[in-house]
Automatic annotation (TrEMBL):
Protein name according to UniProt: Heme ABC exporter ATP-binding protein CcmA
InterPro entries: AAA+_ATPase, ABC_transporter-like_ATP-bd, ABC_transporter-like_CS, ABC_transptr_haem_export_CcmA, P-loop_NTPase
Keyword field contains Coiled coil: no
SUPFAM superfamilies: P-loop containing nucleoside triphosphate hydrolases
Family from the record: Belongs to the ABC transporter superfamily.
GO molecular function, one term: ATP binding
Annotated organism of origin: Xanthobacter aminoxidans
Top-level taxon: Bacteria
Length: 202
């Protein structure tokens, strides 16, 4: 089955006393990026977590068009945290994710080369810089083939070259019919992009 779209209908999200949004319609189609923008605290991360199935909406529904019932098995989710275990080597971190996420993408060493971490595989991950940890998180996208990418500020801490590499990965994923939703404060250079702005008063 081919994933065609990730669709949220009539979504509301309340966190604490705050109603972040309500009655929100979201549609991300395969092959075209959806970028979520808005000020700090507007609810971008909350919306991404709802679309990824990690947070229940206060109201509304999320469905995958094509690909069956569960978003999770089709999903790469990158949160603010890099999900890197400092005590493991760089390569072991990525090998772990490759297994957990089902593989089918690049080999670990190939993916490390692609993100500019070639030769650092045997280092303990705790010594990586912030941008290198982000590169390692992005390498997860390459080691397992998954059609739905939900990415929370994916280019945070990346230098200009790494941002360009990320944009190339994203564009290749979209060109192959993948689906990509990203929250961001900075342009991502993903080609044809739909924009969803949060932060109006619900
Ligand atoms: N677990 C929680 N309990 C209560 N409030 C929360 C919780 N998580 C987030 N919030 C609040 O929800 C609001 C939206 O947070 P969210 O992280 O979705 O915003 P954002 O648009 O991604 O912000 P940023 O641009 O700063 O990353 C914030 O006011 C935040 O304090």
């Amino acid at each position: 089955m081919t994933v065609k779209a990730l669709v949220g209908d009539n979504l509301s999200c309340r966190r604490g006393f705050k109603l972040l949004f309500e009655g929100l319609a979201v549609s991300a189609a395969a092959g075209r990026a959806l970028v979520v923008v808005g000020p700090n605290g507007a609810g971008k991360s909350s919306l991404l977590r709802i679309l990824a199935g990690l947070l229940a909406p206060t109201a509304g529904t999320v469905r995958l068009d094509g690909g069956g019932e569960s978003v999770g098995e089709h999903l790469h989710y990158l949160g603010h945290e890099d999900a890197v275990k400092g005590a493991l080597t760089v390569a072991a971190n990525l090998a772990f994710w490759r297994t957990v996420l089902g593989g089918g993408g690049l080999e670990v060493e190939e993916a490390l080369e692609e993100v500019g971490l070639g030769g650092l595989g045997r280092l303990r991950a705790q010594v990586l810089s912030a941008g290198q940890k982000r590169r390692l998180a992005i390498a997860r996208l390459l080691v397992a083939k998954r059609p739905v990418w939900v990415l929370d500020e994916p280019t945070t801490a990346l230098d200009v070259k790494a941002q360009a590499r990320f944009a190339a990965f994203g564009r290749a994923h979209l060109a192959a019919g993948g689906l990509l939703i990203a929250a961001t404060h900075a342009p991502l250079d993903l080609g044809e992009t739909d924009e969803l702005r949060l932060g109006g008063r619900p």
